[in-house]
UniProtKB/TrEMBL annotation:
The keyword Cytoplasm applies. The keyword Cytoplasm applies. The lineage of its organism: Eukaryota, Metazoa, Ecdysozoa, Arthropoda, Hexapoda. SMART domains: LRR_RI. GO terms for biological process: actin filament organization; myofibril assembly; pointed-end actin filament capping. One of its GO terms (cellular component) is myofibril. Keywords: Cytoplasm, Cytoskeleton. PANTHER family: TROPOMODULIN (PTHR10901), TROPOMODULIN, ISOFORM N (PTHR10901:SF6). Pfam families: Tropomodulin. This is Tropomodulin isoform X12. Its main location: cytoplasm. It comes from Glossina fuscipes.
Amino acid sequence: MDSYKRTTVHSEMSDVPEFQRIKLRPIPEIKPKIPQPSFNLSLRKTSSTTKTTSLTAPAKLYGKDLSEYDEVDVDALLAQLSPEEINILAKEVDPDDNFLPPDQRCSYECTKSPTGPLDRKKLIEHINKQALETPDQPEFEPYVKGTVRGKKWIPPPRDQRALEVEEQIAIDMGDEYEQALSHATQEEIIDLAAILGFHSMMNQDQYHASLLNKGQPVGLGWDGITKSTQQKVYPMDPPNNTDVEESIKRVKEDDPKLIELNFNNIKNISDEKFEQLFEVLPKNEHLEVLSLTNVGLTDKTALLLAEAIEKSKTLRVLNVETNFISPPVVVKLVKALLKCRTIEEFRASNQRSAVLGNKIEMEITDLVEKNTSLLRLGLHLEFNDARHRVAAHLQRNIDRIRVQRLNQRK
């Protein structure tokens, strides 16, 4: 009899989820609030209109109102759990936290020992073999060719009046055009369709051949199939082999032969090297072009560059595209151009933030409109107002310099 009871109790406990079988230590009792009774309240007026308001019972959890659980200290409850009980509880809960890695959010834990390093080829072969050896699940209703299951869709009949109207529509282009089109060849019709912009009537080769007047490809008509063209292979750009330390030394010594310094696509330049370069840059009187594209410039080094620009005397072109400069620091670089009246071209597009924002673009626009020496600006401005104002001001600067050159020649 005792064994029967133990078996019955064990079977009942097996139906309960594992996290509900955790034994908690006693916690201080919470003074229960007086539950609000459930009743229906009807308000009636003496007029012809009747207004009825119904109050339902509050939601409950384990026989208690949800408001009673507001005072429960969850941290105190978790502190009473053992590490094993916390692991059991964690398996039942999936935290909605994007900052947690997926392996910590997933309740599945692999207990198998590792078999060695990953071999992708063997893994794919094993997956394919397992897929081929696994039998297909039987269909509830086997497929029978020609058998229609369910209702077959039949389009509704069209209105006879609409059909008559379509039959009566005719385009009268005149005898001259009709005679020209009736005697035109297929290639001429394709050329005409390309000129009129009917892209869907032809393929890409036919369209470009018509626009460039190269003649239609042989064997391609209205039903022609475009064949793939041979891809043009361009040689890879050679790596930038500029010696960073030697270049900084030449800038420091004010080498008159060093007019252009190109550090583009050099990845291993440290911040210390940038600090050395920007420290000696204001003292150089011969460097005119400085290119720092895709070199990993950050806000820290860009601020040092802004200070060096303010003191530069000969720099005309500055390129800092494809780096990690934030929009506020881009504004400081543009602001530094006001003190350096020699820079004519400044490029700083494709930075860490793809969109500058309206506030940043308006600040850049105001600074550019105060600059009388800037002729070209390489920045992606999203708003039309900023683009138009910047373009108009740069054009005025170009026109003013052109007039000054003409006056000097005279």
